[in-house]
Structures are given as C-alpha cells and as structure tokens.
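Many introductory courses stop at the sequence. We go one step further.
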Amino acid sequence: MTSKERAPNAGTALRIGVELELAFTDLLANGQGVGRAGGIVVFCFGALPGERARVKVASVKQRYAVANLVEILEPSPQRAEPFCPVFGACGGCQVQHLAYPAQLAWKQGVVREALERIGGLHAVDVRPTIGMETPRAYRNKMALVVDDRTDPPSLGFYRQRTHAVVSIDACPVVAEPLDADLKAITKARNEAPVRAMLGEARHLVLRNAGASQRSVLTVTTARRSESVRRAAPALLRDLPGLAGVANSFDLASANAILGRRQSVVAGDGEIEESVGGVLYRFSAGSFFQVNVEMVGRVFAFIEPWIEGGGRILDLYCGVGTFALFFAKHGATVYGIEESPQAVTEARANARRNGLNERARFDPGRVELLAGTPKFEEALREAAVVFLDPPRKGCDEVTLGAVARACVPTLWYLSCDPATLARDSKFLVAKGYRLDTVQPFDMFPQTGHVEILVRLEYSHLAR
C-alpha cells in the first residue's frame, strides 16, 4: 500500500502516516468529523458531514483511527470561515467552521439522537435550538492558563485534547471587556510585579458583568501568594473596569482552575449583574451562567410555566440564578446548593431583591440529603422541582426520591444531552412523561448545548 491511497480495501489495515480520501457523514461534539475506511471508523477534526477530504492517519486503535486533515476536496455548503486565528489549535471552540444556522440544527439533532439512543425515547418533539443574534463575544468568564515556559510567562488556553498551551493575546468569543483585559495583561507582562505574579500563577480567571461593566480577577496559585497582592495596584490601574483582585489557593489537584480557599487582596471581590429584572452579586469562583443573553432567553421561555403562589424546590441552585427569578414571579422557592459560598451569595441576592420572604437557601449536597426527613418534606410540598445539576447529571438516589414523592412537574436544565437522556429514561420509567424539550445555544461555536425539559407526572393519584 502506498503512502497516498484513495480508499483502502476492506481487508487492508490502516497504518500511521497513510493518506486517504474519505467521505464524512457525522460530526462529534469535540469537532471531529466521522468517516469510514474499510469498515473502520476514522475521526478527523475539521471535516464536516457531507464533505470529502484528504486525511493523514495519526493513530490506529483496535476499533477506530484518528487522522489529521490535509485538504478539503469537496466542501459542504454549510462550511464557514473560522473567525479566530487559533481555531483548530485552541481547544476552546470546536465548530467555528460550521455556519451558525447549521450549528443550531446540528445541536437539535444531537439532543434528539441522545434521547433516542440512550433514553430509548422515540418520537420526542425536540424543538429547534434557540440561538443568539450575534454568536460572538458572549462569554462573561475567561479562565486563562499561565504558561511559565516563556519569559515572561504567556497566557492562553489548552491545545485540543492536551495540556499544551496555545498562547493568545485576544479571544473573539469572550465579552469585549474581558478581551480588553486580556490585551492589557499581555501588555503588562514585562512589569516587575506582574511578571513575578505570573511566575507563581497557574490560572487567571476573569469574570465580567455586562450590567455594571465591571470585572473581577482571580489569580490561582499553589499557596497563598504575596506576589498577587503586590501586583494588584498595577492590575487595577491597567485593566479597564477591574473592580477587584483575589488570590485563589490550596488546590485540590494539580489541574484545578480555582483553589479551595480565596482571599480578596484589593478592591471588591464581587460584581453585579442583572438578568430578567433580578440583580445578582457573585464572585469569580461562584457558578453563574457564562452567557447572560441566553439566560434571559431561558427565563423568557420558562416564565409562562410559573404560577404565582406555587412552591418550587430548586436543586443545585448556585447563587440563586433561577430561584430568584421564580420568586420574582410569585413562586415560593427553597434552594439547595453544595457550595456554602454560593448559598451565602444567594441569600444576599434574595435580600438585595426584596425576595427573602419568598426564597430561602440551605447548603448541602443534594445526593446526601435525599431521603432525609427535611428533604422528603420539601418534596411533598413542591408543585415543581427544578433540577440544574452539573454535567454528570443527577444520581438515582435523588431521582428516586423525587419520583417516590410523585412531584407533579419537573423542570430539568442540563448541559449534557447524554446524562439528560439517561435521567429522563429513569424518570419516564417511574411514571413521568416528557412534555417539552427545548435546546438553547448557551455556548455558540462549541459542541456544547443546554437543554430545558419539562416532565409531567402521568398518574392522577399523588
């Protein structure tokens, strides 16, 4: 077999370095196109469904091969020109080469396929993905990796599927104030205090609030660092709109982006955002959705479901993002969140909005509370349970407790189609009916999709 081969025979083994011409039929969430060579699946980043491309085999496993793109031979009409110069190297975006309307349709299909394949839920009406008017400059949070292999240390994001760093001095998918902050830090790298701080830093986490046009910076170091305190005056001077600087330390692992402890070293450690008429104050380390425009779209979609006076149990409530919106529209909400810091912020946000009579919050891990008398009582009183779990989804202990209580309505917001499909399958088997499936493009240009579903208990007796 020659080093360049139009298509392998079915019985021919693939070898590293071989070039092939392949037709691609599918697209994975990580941006890899899916083709076949002699019955073997070949994954290649950059190729789109409906395209033919020349690829070079990079690795061969027992059941699949991975190739690098050499040349697009027959481009898809849905192909777009990437707008970021490091797209394809940086791991932050996966599908900039796919036109935005096609991204929305593809994500709708990803949700439908997961519900069918993993959940066994067929003939489900998955609505068209709700997208952004301008799918750029949307992220209000940026976690930069500090690369100390350069002098002075440089900033960037991880390269695709590695821990190598792609150096950047701009990012077109983050909010414009964060992009300006990135450029300012890059310019200040040679200043002695900033250089010393970067020498100790693992990550820089910047968060911006569009409502106040203010940002906060958290510098992650292995241990509490005096260099962060010494660099803070220069950072507050050079970064437009920077409200405060914090030092995050005591790392749980070598790859942790934020430490378990945090100390504000200068200015204010929190910023204020407004969504749907609700004011939120939160720190850089708290969980708050990265795309405020799309949070507003979710709010608008869910608002007709909220009935004044109803009781809602909000599990994994974070800083009260959804709980306070529900309370503002007349619901009585009880929120549970694992992070004590987030609960403190949620309670403060309730007071700030005059909603502390309607919204209360307690710290605790949902899966450990499930089955306790207090949790069972909250379930019995709830007309609605709102679930917004991390990517791993809910555990069966929690879902089982919800199902045993026969809560009439569940609203489930998920950032992972696979775990949503798994959990929906469990709930449907316990008597729930999948009523609404609405994808939202919370993360344009990436393989991620947010999905809101509503499940109704199908039995009359409760």
